[in-house]
Amino acid sequence: MAATVNFTGAVDRDLLKRAKVIAAKTDTSVNALFNAELRHLVETFEASEASGNQNYRVLLDFSLGRLTSDDAMRALAIDSEEDLFLLMAQAHLPMPRLPDAVTRDMVDQLNALAG
């Protein structure tokens, strides 16, 4: 068994609450959920690098908000956001969140259309 170490990190309060619910429903711990997800991320990234395939890195950069969807699609040589979203799901990566200011602007624009 691999040695374990403790570390300190920060997580969104609501996300942790939701993770605790999932852990309870699946008779496991948040720590076990975190370890499984982190292991998947690391092993997939390493396997991609070992094979010389940079697609996972592009998808991870998009997931982390470092690339726009247009930049990611160009790097992956795909021409539709639907294909990008399918690749994200297959890679087991979350879609990036828009910055709060961008989300507020979108809501304001929608409210202006409705009003």
Give me some keywords for this one.
mainly alpha; 0% strand; flat
Summarize the structure.
This protein is mainly alpha-helical and 115 residues long.
Q: Explain this structure to me?
A:
With about 120 residues, the chain is an all-alpha fold. It has one domain (about 15-115). Helix content is about 65%, strand content about 0%. The protein is built from six helices and no strands. The protein has helices at about 15-25, 30-50, 55-65, 70-75, 80-90, 100-115. The longest helix is centred in the middle third of the chain and has 21 residues, at about 30-50. It is flat, with a radius of gyration of 18 Å. The relative contact order is 0.07. The mean pLDDT is about 90.
The total domain count is 1
Helix count?
6
Number of DSSP E strands:
0
Q: If you average the pLDDT, what whole number results?
A: 91
User: Alpha-carbon distance between the termini?
Assistant: 61 Å
- Estimate percent helicity: 55-70%
C-alpha-based Rg, rounded: 18 Å
Describe the sheet with the most strands: none
What share of residues are in beta strands? under 5%
- Give the overall silhouette: flat
Which sequence of SSEs, written as H and E, runs from N to C?
HHHHHH
Query: Which segments are poorly predicted (pLDDT under 50) over 5 or more consecutive residues?
Result: none
Structural class: mainly alpha
